[in-house]
Amino acid sequence: MRHTVHADVRLLLDHQAPGGAYVASPSFSQYPFGWLRDGAFIAHALQRAGERASAEAFHGWVARAVGRREDDVRRLIADRAAGRAVDHRRMLPARYLLDGRSEEGDWPDFQLDGYGQWLWSLAEHARGGPLPAGVRDAAVLVADYLAAFWDEPCYDAWEEGRTQHHTSTLASAAAGLRAAGGLLGGGYAAEGERAWAFVLGRCVEDGHFVKAARNPAVDASLVWLATPFDLVGDDDPVFARTLAAIERDLWRPDGLLRYRADTFYGGGAWVLLTAGLAWHHARAGRRERACELLAVVERHRGADGGLPEQVPTEGTDPWFLDYWTRRWGPSASPLLWSHAMVVLAGLEAG
């Protein structure tokens, strides 16, 4: 386990851009960018692995990328406060070029979760020392942005469902705002509690958390409510029923699905989600189960040591698998987010 974690840490470091960004995948045509969502987890993994300088470089890169948009963000917040309509195309992007510039294209870019996840990751990083002034300024800007827009429907972590309130997105905003409250003061923590109250009031059905408001399915990203965001404990009865539903409905022989109706690459098993579930079980004291899950992950490691985004599994739709493979090639590998989750789970399991 230790050798694997060391190798994964090395791979993550090797694919950090000079400016601090982590490329999502160095070899996949659609992923030569830096996502805040992927990067927040990667930076946290490297921080936990003792690579503080790498995490610090990433947070500095985010601060510079967001800072370029400060005037636009302040106008957006002012428009929201005045009750004026806001075009989602003006919102902060989910991904950036590795030099921090915005990428112009038709990607489903309005995603709030990454900004909450960045604040959470930054607050974890800040436990080791004070923030540089520029990073703190960017954190204030992002916290103000989230406080203004957390209840705006947007694309989810899987870049789908533009018009829905997604539970893991709301939870990411709640966790980020809570973290901002501790990091920056002000009323951010109270706004985070309002976001969490929205989840409890709108995103629980039949005694468990659901994929989105008025969508009763479960989604593997719901694990994040407990690990790492600590919005709810492992022993909370609503979360316990959610976790049971995830393992019952989404587990396949090769790992964890995103959600049952998934068709991306046929709806395969996602390595990063399997490792994320291992991380949660390890944190909850179920080390044996965590190691079982990590053993499943290891079956998918390539000869070059790379871990993919997902793999075909039982129930994968062959037509959709062929469609996406013809369109973009095989599933992304290495996917840095997959490696980061293995690092986090491996360090937790010991």
* CATH topology call: Glycosyltransferase
Structural class: mainly alpha
Q: Residue share in helices?
A: 40-55%
CATH architecture tag: Alpha/alpha barrel
The helix tally amounts to 13
> In whole angstroms, how far apart are the ends?
8 Å
Average pLDDT, rounded to a whole number, is: 96
Low-confidence stretches: none
Q: Which strands sit side by side, in order, in the main sheet?
A: 1-2
Account of the 3D structure:
The chain has 350 residues and is mainly alpha-helical. It has a single domain (2-349), classed as Glycosyltransferase (Alpha/alpha barrel). The protein contains 13 helices and eight strands. The strands form four sheets. It has a two-stranded antiparallel sheet. Helix 4 (70-81) runs parallel beside helix 6 and helix 10 (271-283) runs antiparallel to helix 11.
In short:
The protein has 350 residues and is mostly helical.
Any chance you could write out the topology, listing elements then pairs?
Elements: H1 2-14, E1 34-35, H2 36-48, H3 52-67, H4 70-81, E2 95-96, H5 113-126, H6 133-149, H7 167-184, H8 188-202, E3 204-205, E4 208-209, H9 237-250, E5 251-252, E6 255-256, E7 269-270, H10 271-283, H11 287-298, E8 310-311, H12 318-328, H13 336-349
Helix pairs in contact: 1-13, 2-3, 2-5, 2-13, 3-6, 4-6, 5-6, 5-7, 6-7, 7-8, 10-11, 10-13, 11-13
